[in-house]
Amino acid sequence: MRSVDCVAALILDRHHRVYVQRRTAERRLLPGIWDIVGGHLEPGESPEEALAREVEEETGWKVRDIVWPVADWEWEWEGRVRRELDYLVTVDGDLARPRLEEGKHDAGDWVGPDNLELLMLNRTDGDRRLRDIVAFVVRTRFTDRLRLEPMTGPGEVLPGHAADLVTLHADPWVAHWYAETLSEQDAVRRATEGQARWEADGVSKWMAFERDSGALAGRGGLSRLPADASVTAAIGELVGPEWATERVELGWALTESARGRGFATEIGRAGLEFAFSTLAAPAVVAFTERINVASRAVMERLGMTYAGEITLEGLVAGSDEVQPNAPFAVYVATRDTATGPEADI
Question: Per-residue b/e over 222-237, b at no fewer than 16 CB within 10 Å?
């Protein structure tokens, strides 16, 4: 494998925005574009040493902790290919007062869900890879024990989650409730569609990994139900028109080994926080088969209120076969009723 040439730091504020800097117009490489903090390794430096040096030189902040290696990718300029490692880091210092490195950067800003395209400004090569890395980090959430990554399809920088979806749907417990396994082709399509929903809807499902081991725990989070779907109309009749403005639904699916450990509650709390803080949704629903007492218990722990039932394809008591009109319990949460904050990184 090619040796590491460059490192970069993805620095988040409390609003889950990534710090970026504008390169001066005099720079030879990509003048006038917005970039994340980072640079080349000096002789004898490790990537971690270079990361600490670059962060302090370019911002005045000091790296406190390297949370997660987000991306390992290559880019080319003037015929030379460079390998870059990008890390999510925490820093010490006043995030409101970065110190711009004279001659290299002339402005700083924070990029969140609403201004990701700032990273494409003045980028005449049309390369979206850095923009997509930043979007991935902006949408990621951490709980006490889980890293929740926004579902992505295979790409040039991020490998995507197709293989994780194959593994998840092959799990006996997940297969029991979802009645399907996924081929590699189906998983690629599903992961790519999940990423497209993040772009179009501002929200989609996360893939959940244990922070300590990196093991796949499941998936979960939010989605927007289609405005013209019969299930959307049925839920709207139960919970009222306020919910229908955003049509946000919360759900989760855990591997058998991850069950009984409180992970669904952690995913649910992160999803509710995202819905109310990031999306400003007035209400969130969750629904599951009437017989799924485990998921219903999670909804109640989250402070969600039982709203009634609808019928969908699903499981019923006494049968392992999917039925066309299974009863589903619907729960609803508002900002006032939901319980529990998400964890900081």
Answer: bbbbeeeeebbebbbe
DSSP code for 140: -
Three-class HEC string of 72-100: EEEEEECCEEEEEEEEEEEEECCCCCCCC
For residue 170, give the CATH number of its domain: 3.40.630.30
pLDDT given at position 340: 56
Q: What's the CA gap between 260 and 110, in Å, rounded? A: 38
| Neighbour-count burial of 243, counting CB atoms closer than 10 A to its CB (0-12 exposed, 13-18 middle, 19+ buried) | buried
CB-CB contact of 31 with 106 (8 Å): no
* The token pair that represents 270 in the structure block: 């992160």
Name the residue among 4, 89, 103 with its Cα closest to residue 52. 89
Q: Degrees (nearest 5) of the Cα angle 42, 12, 220? A: 120
User: Same domain, yes or no, for 197 and 279?
Assistant: yes
Instruction: CATH number of the domain at 33, please.
Output: 3.90.79.10
Final residue of a domain: which of 116, 138, 160? 138
Which tokens in the block code for residue 177? 């409730």
Domain containing 167: what range? 141-334
Residue 90 to residue 112: CA distance in whole angstroms: 17
Maximum CA pair distance of the chain?
72
Q: How many helices (H) and strands (E) does the chain have?
A: 9, 15
Number of domains in the chain: 2
Low-confidence ranges of the chain (pLDDT < 50): none
pTM: 0.94
Dist CA 54 CA 38 (whole Å): 5
Question: Do residues 90 and 65 touch, judged by C-beta distance below 8 A?
Answer: yes
